[in-house]
Amino acid sequence: MARAAVQRRLNWLRATVLENRPETARVHRLLFDVPGWSGHLPGQHVDVRLTAEDGYTAQRSYSLASAPEDPRLHLLVERLEGGEVSPYLTDELRSDDLLELRGPIGGYFVWSSAVDRDAGQAEGRRPVQLVAGGAGVAPFLAMLDHHRRTGGSTPVRLLYSARTSDDVLARDVLGPQTTITLTREAPAGWRGLTGRIDRRMLEAQTFAPTTRPRVFVCGPTSFVESTATTLVDLGHDPSWIRLERFGGSGDPS
C-alpha cells in the first residue's frame, strides 16, 4: 500500500525585523529572526500577515530569498503604488518590529542539492536552468546561495532579465553562472546582454534540451507564459519545466 502523504500543519510565527534596507529604488530586502522556524527548501515561500488595530488583516505571499543555511530569513518586497501591504513593509517596518509569518509553503517549485543526491547518479547529472524576470529572481537567489554554500556540483545557470542596471537585485549572490539582460537602458560600457528574453536568447544562453535540464521560470505572468511556451517550442519537455507567476508591476520589460 502506498504511503499516505502527511501535510504538516502550518502555524503563524512571530517574526522580528532585523533589518529593512533598500535593494533598488523599488525593492527592499527584509531580514527576519523567526524563533521556531523549521527550515525551508530553496524555492519555497511564506505568507505575511498584517493586523490593524481594528482587527482588519491583510495577507500576501513572498518567496524566500535566503538559503536554508542562513539563520535569517530574507524577503525581497517590491513596493507597489496603491498596494495594501508592500508600502507598509518597505516604508514603515523598522528593526525590532514584529509581524506574523507562516511557512515554509510549497513543494513544487523547489530545488536543492539534496534533490540531486536523492535522485540517483543519472538524475544528479542533469543541469538546472533558472530564468527570472524582475523580482522573480528572489527564489533563485535562495537556490544559488544554497548551491554555493553546499559546494554543489550540479551545473546551474541563471538567465535574468531586469529593466536597468540599477534594477538588478542581489549582486552579491549572482555569480559567473548568471547572465543578465537589460530591457530598457544599459549604462556606458555595459558588457552584458540587452533586450527581452526571446527565442534566440533562450537558445543561446540556456542549457540545450538534449541535456535534459530541470527548468524553473519565475516572474510576471506574461513573462512566465511566454518563456515557457518558447522553451517547449525549442524542444524542452513540459514535464521538466516549473513555473511561478506573480502579478503587480514587476514586468521586466
TrEMBL record:
<dbReference type="InterPro" id="IPR017927">
    <property type="entry name" value="FAD-bd_FR_type"/>
</dbReference>
<dbReference type="InterPro" id="IPR039261">
    <property type="entry name" value="FNR_nucleotide-bd"/>
</dbReference>
<keyword id="KW-0001">2Fe-2S</keyword>
<keyword id="KW-0411">Iron-sulfur</keyword>
<dbReference type="InterPro" id="IPR001709">
    <property type="entry name" value="Flavoprot_Pyr_Nucl_cyt_Rdtase"/>
</dbReference>
<dbReference type="Pfam" id="PF00175">
    <property type="entry name" value="NAD_binding_1"/>
</dbReference>
<dbReference type="InterPro" id="IPR008333">
    <property type="entry name" value="Cbr1-like_FAD-bd_dom"/>
</dbReference>
<dbReference type="GO" id="GO:0051537">
    <property type="term" value="F:2 iron, 2 sulfur cluster binding"/>
</dbReference>
<protein>
    <submittedName>
        <fullName>Ferredoxin-NADP reductase</fullName>
    </submittedName>
</protein>
<dbReference type="InterPro" id="IPR001433">
    <property type="entry name" value="OxRdtase_FAD/NAD-bd"/>
</dbReference>
<dbReference type="InterPro" id="IPR017938">
    <property type="entry name" value="Riboflavin_synthase-like_b-brl"/>
</dbReference>
<dbReference type="Pfam" id="PF00970">
    <property type="entry name" value="FAD_binding_6"/>
</dbReference>
<feature type="domain" description="FAD-binding FR-type">
    <location>
        <begin position="10"/>
        <end position="111"/>
    </location>
</feature>
<dbReference type="GO" id="GO:0016491">
    <property type="term" value="F:oxidoreductase activity"/>
</dbReference>
<keyword id="KW-0408">Iron</keyword>
<keyword id="KW-0479">Metal-binding</keyword>
<dbReference type="InterPro" id="IPR050415">
    <property type="entry name" value="MRET"/>
</dbReference>
